[in-house]
Write a structure and sequence with these properties.
The protein is α+β, with helices and mostly antiparallel strands. It is 35% helix and 23% strand. Helix 11 packs across helix 12 and helix 12 crosses helix 13. The termini are far apart.
């Protein structure tokens, strides 16, 4: 009898595997760190073989720790960091170089060139995206242009491209399946969200052979089989991490909104069958759906440095020894003492889309202590999220309802209360904060028949904590004015 769903959650800094039962209780979890590589300022890479090895190791460890017979697993779902780009040889299976991570800014000059040539609007119309180094297309172009022999190999049909989900699926199926889902395809800046196909005009513009691209499926679909500890298991769901979280948060109705507090922060709202075109710097993307369901769209805003600012406090400034310490020390300060941290370490995402902005700390006085800086760093996550909320409210023309929060930093009570205060919205944190893994588990479960329908999933997702706004409106406006002043200074720094 099938009793479990296995979610593979390959994020920016770690590869995790989580085993869920039919009530979304976590039976077992395992994690492997994925090192980041910084060859030059603004460049971010990872070793694709380390990504796969880490994910495979976490998968086998998760099952071994659980004591579960792998034959009891109904299906596997894969969720992943999205825009990160891998190219590999289809015959040898070897990557042609390191993966270029979504945070990498090396292709900013190419984006500026394309903008100067007048392609920004055409790209937005076809893909729903802003022209930015964040997305996969210019990363592919860079690898084809700069890795010796890459372009020739691609034109001969020897290379394959994939975001991390595609790379993992190809490896797990022994090279039998080269595929992705719509949510990941839509983050490449090559997929036409109107025609639901790879855009030939953009491929020609960037000089990318169509033959290197994967087949595109619905998020909930049968992708192939993998062997796991003697069991023959189906892969029945793939979704980019943020769309998986939207599904895991049960944002099934138009207007439902969630924010994931991970390395970055990602605010998504379900817009249903309507493709909403943002007037406020957000992008249009897909929501995750199953094969027999109509296409659904979403609005998305991305913060490049969210929880990563806490890692910065720990690893570079050495103000804390563990990420969890940020809540303790921030709680010891009643406020930031007028300090603002703008963590624009790799530019700023929505709604600013400023590739050249740089980080800074403002408002320092002789009385500023480490606790003020720690609190200001935490608050920067909420401020950046509020900028996205304001943009989204502008596009919808009305205030949002409850903000559903997930990700590692959603367990930080100081941050969640400040988020509610600065946004003037209730913030709901579900009992299961692993919304990304839960979402792809739900998709795989629906496809495999392990779950009946979305209503069953929603009924099993009601428990959690809600934070309510407690800040006076005048105080809120004063703090936001200070934040926006700091942002303007960072954008004008270079």
């Amino acid at each position: 009898m099938k009793k479990y769903i296995l979610a593979l959650d390959e994020g920016t800094t770690s590869a995790r595997s989580i085993l869920f039962d039919a009530d979304f209780r976590i039976i077992s979890m395992a994690q492997q760190e994925i090192p980041q590589i910084y060859p030059k300022p603004g460049w971010v890479e990872q070793d694709p073989m380390r990504i796969y090895a880490g994910q495979y190791a976490s998968m086998t460890e998760c099952i071994a720790k659980s004591g579960v017979n792998p034959e009891e697993i109904a299906a596997i779902g894969i969720t992943n960091q999205r825009e990160t780009t891998v190219l590999w040889n289809r015959y040898t299976g070897k990557p042609i170089g390191n993966a270029i991570v979504w945070q990498c800014r090396r292709t900013a000059p190419l984006c500026e060139q394309l903008d100067a040539q007048g392609y920004t609007d055409a790209i937005a119309e076809a893909t729903g995206l802003r022209l930015d180094a964040y997305f996969s297309a210019t990363k592919i172009r860079w690898m084809l242009d700069h890795v010796p022999g890459a372009r020739e190999s691609a034109e001969k049909g020897e290379l394959l491209f994939g975001t991390v989900d595609t790379w993992l699926l190809w490896k797990l199926t022994g090279g039998a399946v080269h595929a992705t889902d719509r949510t990941n395809a839509s983050r490449t800046m090559l997929y036409n969200i109107n025609t639901l196909s790879w855009d030939k005009n953009l491929l020609r513009l960037l000089g990318i052979p169509e033959g290197i691209l994967p087949n595109v499926h619905a998020s909930g679909d049968f992708y192939g089989y993998t062997e796991l500890m003697g069991a023959h298991l189906p892969v029945c769901g793939i979704a980019g991490d943020q769309q998986a979280a939207l599904f895991g948060q049960c944002c099934f109705a138009p207007g439902d909104v969630k924010n994931t507090y991970g390395t970055g922060c990602f605010l998504l709202a379900n817009t249903g069958a309507e493709r909403v075109v943002s007037k406020n710097g957000l992008i249009t993307t897909f929501a995750a759906t199953c094969q027999d369901e109509p296409v659904e769209y979403a609005l998305e805003g991305s913060v490049f440095v969210g929880g990563a600012v806490i890692q910065w406090l720990r690893d570079e400034l050495r103000l804390i020894s563990d990420a969890a310490d940020s809540e303790y020390f921030a709680g010891k300060a009643k406020d930031s003492g007028g300090v603002y941290v703008v963590p624009a370490f790799s530019g700023m995402g929505a709604p600013y889309w400023d590739m050249h902005a740089r980080g800074a700390i403002f408002g320092l006085t002789r009385g500023t202590g480490s606790r003020h800086i720690i609190r200001a760093a935490l608050e920067s996550i909420a401020y950046q999220t509020q900028d996205l909320i304001a943009a989204m409210q502008g596009d919808f023309g009305h205030a949002l309802g409850t903000l559903r929060a997930d990700g590692g930093a959603a367990s930080n009570a100081v941050l969640m209360q400040f988020q509610s205060d600065i946004s003037a919205l209730p913030v709901f944190c579900p009992a299961c904060t692993e919304a990304t893994a839960k979402g792809v588990a739900a998709l795989a479960g629906l496809t495999s028949g392990f779950f009946r329908d979305r209503a069953e999933i929603a009924a099993k997702s009601a428990d959690g904590i809600t934070y309510h706004p407690q800040m006076a409106g005048v105080d809120r406006e004063k703090l936001l004015n200070g934040w926006h002043c700091a942002v303007r200074a960072c954008r004008g720094f270079v």
